[in-house]
Amino acid sequence: MQDSTITIGCGLVLGVAAVPVTVEATTKHASDGTPRLLGLVDACVREAYHRVLQAFFALDLPQPRGVTTVNFAPAALRKQGSGFDLPLALALAGAAGLFPAEQTRGLFAFGEVSLRGRILPARGAVSVALAAQTAGARTMLTSPTDAEHCAAVDGVELRGAATLADAIYWLAGRRELPRAAPPAPPAPRGGATAADLADIRGHATPKRALAVAAAGGHNLLFVGPPGTGKSALVRRLPGILTPPSEAERLEILQVHAAAGLELPPQRPLRAPHHSSSMASLLGGGPDLRPGEVTLAHRGVLFLDEVPEFRRDALEALRQPLEDGRVTVGRAQRTVTMPARFRLVAAMNPCPCGYHGHPTRPCLCTPTTLQRYRRRLSGPLLDRLDLQVEVPALDPSEYEAAPAPDGCTAALLSKVTAAGERRAARNARLGVRGFNADLDDAELLPACQPDAAAISALSQVLRRHRGSGRARIRLLRVARTLADLRDADRIRDEDVLEAATLRRLDAP
Fold first, then answer.
1. Band of pLDDT at residue 34, cut at 50, 70 and 90
2. From CA 421, how far away is CA 441, in angstroms rounded?
3. Are 357 and 225 in contact (CB under 8 A)?
């Protein structure tokens, strides 16, 4: 057999992004014929060599004999994951002469290979496709399922192979593999079984707060006794969020593919349990996987019973809430992952849950109540633009007919119209993002407050001793309220309603 060296591109998924990796197989410098895998590979990659050889045997393919050295570069990064199976198999096949070496120029490959030779999806294929795009690759070969998902990446030709034989014979020019096309976006959940806000009677103010949060990208806190519908309201929030753009959809797809999860039919809603650790919220672990804040990217992170979360986990949310990203540092590497989400939290007013209840007495002492409220720090509360009470309803309200403007369809229509107005204004002003993302320089041109609004804002801040940050957040919420009523300028009524939605009058 003629000596040859084959090089195939691949990727190592770290967090959400992927680092390009080169897999090289050669028959040169053979010594005793014992295969050697170089480049700081873990046990999963070392076992891939034996999985691949069994796949060759199961498919009755010529065994890649004489290939004694396989290198994974850069050597300083630890290679882990099953996605290296396919590039390793193709590198062995090419070095053994099963297809011309020039066929691998500009080729990336990623996928797991079973003992029977089937190519299976691997975690993080979309991230590897984006790395291939950055590296200037022309083609990426993977499983049919991953090929469909990765086809949303522009500039890279995706080919899906069901078996290792299909991939090798395609490279040899003996078999056709159709170019993959991205699947149609999943339809939002609908129909009679879909959860609708009309199912929740009353609660006009909480529903209004949901619409404001959806239209302006604001963070929200619901406070109320047990059983008043706080969780039910939040779980219907994705139904009134506008569908993601193509760019946002690709970001969501990349995050969920990196975590090995299916793409949600709507913007994601993540609801971790209150026992979650800081690492599970922010991400991390040996392979630096995304946490809940990243899985909620471009969607909603719902923290039910928020005072029961660990204090360090809650305080760690402050940086991603401000920056829209989370940085996880380790001794050997630091990874930054996207985390632009809406934080929606719910809590009881006290440990027993009935402080301020109209019919049930509260059993908490003043000290217990104060200790409970201190579980949420001032800086974290300050980042929650909307803080709304969800009160206990009178029993007669459960029998009342639902309000026509309180259903999901009606609120989605309002949110969509407000979003179109915001997008047109942002294009005119040259800014991006939601109203909740407006900085100091962008705020006044976007709001254009009249004299009455400025006076109302000053009175609210003076009365409640509001800070400069409180002023900014009131203006952002007021801007969203003006968008919902289809107005260019904010008025005093918008400022006063924004103050009400922040519970500035609450004890």
1. low
2. 20
3. yes
Measured from the Cβ of residue 486, the count of other Cβ atoms closer than 10 Å reads: 11
Q: Dihedral of the CA atoms 413, 417, 423, 428 (nearest 10)? A: 180
Give me the residue spans of the domains in the chain. 5-171, 219-384
Say how far apart CA 144 and CA 91 lie, in whole Å: 20
Please give the CATH number for the structural domain made up of 5-171: 3.30.230.10
* φ/ψ of residue 11, rounded to 5: -155, 145
Distance CA 155, CA 136 (A): 8
Query: Taken in order 372, 378, 384, 385, is the CA torsion positive or negative?
Result: positive
Contact 272, 303 (CB under 8 A): yes
Please state the pTM of the whole predicted model.
Answer: 0.89
CATH topology for the 219-384 domain? Rossmann fold (3.40.50)
Span 427-433, mean pLDDT?
A: 88
What number is the average pLDDT over the span 39-43?
A: 89
Structure confidence by residue, pLDDT tens digits, 445-482: 999 999 999 999 999 999 888 788 889 999 999 999 99
Q: For residue 250, how many other CB atoms are within 10 A of its CB?
A: 19
Distance CA 161, CA 145 (A): 9
The residue whose two tokens read 């129909």 is 191
Residue 504: both structure tokens together: 């500035």
